[in-house]
Structures are given as C-alpha cells and as structure tokens.
Amino acid sequence: MLVVQKYGGTSVGDLERIENVAKRVAKSKDEGNSIVVVVSAMSGETNKLISYAEHFSSNPPKREMDILLSSGERVTSALLSIALNQMGYSAIALTGRQAGMVTNSTHTSARIEKIETDNIQKELDKNKIVIVAGFQGISKEGNVTTLGRGGSDLSAVAIAGALGADLCEIYTDVDGVYTTDPRIEPKAKKIEKISYDEMLEFASLGAKVLQNRSVELAKKLDVNLVTRSSFNNNSGTLITKEENIMEKPIVSGIALDKNQARITLRGVVDEPGIAASIFTNLADEGINVDMIIQNVGEDGSTNLGFTVPRDELERAKKIMLELNPAKNLEFDSNIVKVSIVGVGMKSHSGVASKAFETMAKENINIEMISTSEIKISMAIEQKYGELAVRALHEAYELDK
Ligand code: ADP
Ligand code: ASP
Ligand code: MG
User: Among 119, 150, 173, where does a domain finish?
Assistant: First the structure.
C-alpha cells in the first residue's frame, strides 16, 4: 500500500515524541508499505515564530513571514529523518519546494496549484521513506509560501491525491473526530465514519481537528482520509462519501468557533447598491463575511449586522471606517458561533426548534442565526460558548 501519514504539532512536540513517530513510521514500513510522511512544526513553534516577528512589527511583510514560518516544519522533517536513519531505515527529508509543491503567490495563505511529484516518486522508487515538511510550497516566482494555519493537513491530502495514495492518515492528539471537541465535553463520542460534506461543515465551523481546505480537497480528489491518534492504536474516524455511510444520524455533532467578531451598522441609507458596496469592499480584501442580518430602522434607514473572522476584524474595521456607510458603527469581538451539523437534517424537521429551545432553557440570548441544508449556526455571547456546546450535545443525545 502507498500511505501518506501526517503527524501534527503535538505528535512531534518534543524529541521523545519524534522518536515515537519514527517508530510508528518504521512499523508501517516493516509491514511492507510505501510511505510519505508529512510533518507539522513542533507544537507551539509556529506561534513562537509569529511572536518573534511581532516583536519587530505589528504588520510584518508576508513574504518574509513565509520564510520564517516554513522553518518550523523543516526542523521536524529533518529530525524525523535523522531519527529514522539512525534506526537503520533509509529516509530522506524534503522541503516544500523539493517535494514539488507549487502554489500561487498569496503569501501566508497560498493555494496549491499543482504538485510535481517526480522528486517524491524518485525517492519512493529507491525504497526510501520520504518525509515532507508540511504547510509550505514554492510560488512560480520562486518564493517560499505557506498554506495558512493548520495547512499541513492540506499538504498531506494534496500529496496523497497527486500520488494516488491508497490512504491518507492524519495523526493527531485525539482518537478521531468526536461529536464535539472532547476538551469541552468529555462525554463526546468518537464518530466511526463521517461524510466529506459534514466534515467540511464541521471543520469550517471551528472543529480544528482537520483543516477545512484539506477536507474540501479530499472530497474533490476522492482521497481516503482517516484521522487517528499518534499516542495509541485505536481505530480512528474515516472521512468518506455519503453513500458509504449506512447509518445517518440526524445530528452528527456540535462545533464551536471562537474566531468570530460582529460588525453592526445602524442607520444605513436604504437605497439599492449599499449592501453591494459594503460586501464588495470586504470581499476585495479577502475578508469572509458569514452571518448577515438586516432589519428596518426607525427613520426608513436600515440596520445591518454581520460576522467576520475575529483575526480579520481590524482590517474590516479600517475598511468600514473609510467607507463610512452608516450613522453608527459598532465592532464587537465578544461573540462566538455555535453550530449543529448533520446530513440527516435535510430530511427531518424540528432540529432548529430544539436548538432554540435549548438556548432558551439555558437563558442564552441568540444574537444571529444562519442555516444551510446540513447545519444551523447561532452567534451568542462569548462567555456562554462552552455551556451552549454542552447543553446542545445533551439535547441531541450525542452522548448516548
Ligand atoms: P494537530 O496539531 O495534530 O494538527 P489540532 O490541534 O490542529 O492537531 O487538532 C486536534 C484538536 O482538535 C484536538 O486536540 C481537539 O481539542 C480539537 N477538536 C475540536 N473539535 C473536535 C472534534 N469534533 N473532534 C475531535 N477533536 C476536536
Ligand atoms: N505549523 C502550522 C500551524 O501551526 C501548520 C500546521 O501545523 O498544520 O498552523
Ligand atoms: Mg491541525
């Protein structure tokens, strides 16, 4: 079998853990597999590098950030390769460039354009264990790029897709995908199989166990994706096509997204084109607007509220202040988004009303709502986020 294994930050968090990973890789090799390993930086390393840059500048040049941040993954790839070679295995570490990971030039959140697999293939043909530094690539201009936070998952899926690997295993610090973050609700249950679409919603709504773009790509390239723990041998969660899943629960899980902020515009002139100009200006800056509500104000003007990722609030604020589309502008980062996800919702009613009842019972005010075929999201005050997750988890009997 050709297997791509990705090990996340905690799994390679110190030298002992890198040694543990080396042993796991060696075991899989002994079983006769061809292996490409994709590694993250040691846990905390990427944040540390960011804080170093922030020591000098609140807005460091993104090209330089990419050179800085890509170093974390290179350290781990080299150390793992050294460990494996010492154990008598023939391994070789490759940087993103050497692995043929070609991206566009959007520094710090580059998109993969293609993978030139010749180099990886050449080393696999020599029966080597190939270890690729995740999260990074090279632009056509020859600059180092990175793929956005959590991007090593994406590196692994992209490589698995390009090589036509039989399996892509994402090793992390939990046994798989749970009905909610087990750090918030210890009663959360592991999900055996989940569809790409549900997992994509889950990941986009805050369940960081898989990066959302990696799930999107896995679906597109039909990659068999499994998340497992690098600390035990438990079976993990298979992310697969919906038709491969027999039992479809109405609600599969609850997600919490803390990276949210709200912008409220009061007294927006009520004429055609205003909303277009507001949202076009934000979109041009690459800012993702999520929940939107509009209602009628007192004097014929309208009020408009919407959410943006919290780490983009400062940029959004600047754009709004320049555009000045309303009498009154408010910026609020005291909110979180809690979401209920499940493909079964498509064919069942009453899912939303149960969510609203649960919030009412806990005395939590719902500030915004948005829905799709397979999810319901509610913006609520930050301090109630984890309480809401636990209450919803119980209300939908996900602990059963
Ligand atoms: P890695 O460093 O291996 O990439 P991450 O920290 O990115 O790992 O993702 C794993 C974490 O995701 C877990 O420790 C867990 O707290 C969190 N998480 C959030 N939601 C879920 C969920 N539904 N199921 C499992 N883990 C989740
Ligand atoms: N090291 C990068 C991050 O912390 C990429 C990753 O771990 O996937 O975001
Ligand atoms: Mg991750």
Answer: 173
The span from the CA of 154 to the CA of 312, in Å, is 22
Indicate the burial class of 308 (C-beta count within 10 angstroms; 0-12, 13-18, 19 or more).
Answer: buried
Find the domain containing 115 and state its range: 2-173
Regarding whether 138 and 34 lie in a shared domain, the answer is yes
SS3 145: strand
Of 173, 198, 230, which marks where a domain is finished? 173
Gap between the Cα atoms of 138 and 136, Å rounded: 7
Q: How far is CA 82 from CA 78, 89, 303, 336, 394, in A?
A: 6, 10, 60, 43, 47
Is 96 close to ligand 2, i.e. is its CB under 6 Å away?
Answer: no
249 within some domain: no
Q: What is the mean pLDDT of residues 314-325?
A: 92
H/E stretch holding 238? strand 237-240
Whole-number percent of the chain with pLDDT over 70: 100
Q: What are the pLDDT digits (tens) for 148-191? A: 999 999 999 999 999 999 999 999 999 999 999 999 999 999 99
- Nearest ligand 1 atom to the CA of 10 is 2
Q: Residue 293 falls within a domain, yes or no?
A: yes
pTM: 0.93
Cα 326 to averaged position of ligand 1 atoms, centre (Å): 40
Write down the pLDDT at residue 297.
75
Question: Does the CB atom of residue 183 touch ligand 1 within 6 A?
Answer: yes
Segment 5-21 shows an average pLDDT of 98
What spacing in Å lies between the alpha carbon of 301 and ligand 1's midpoint? 44
C-alpha dist (Å) from residue 277 to 140, 221, 290: 33, 36, 16
Residues 260 and 378 in one domain: yes
Task: Kindly state if the Cβ of 208 falls inside 6 Å of ligand 1.
Answer: yes
Ligand 1 atom closest to Cα of 8?
Answer: 3
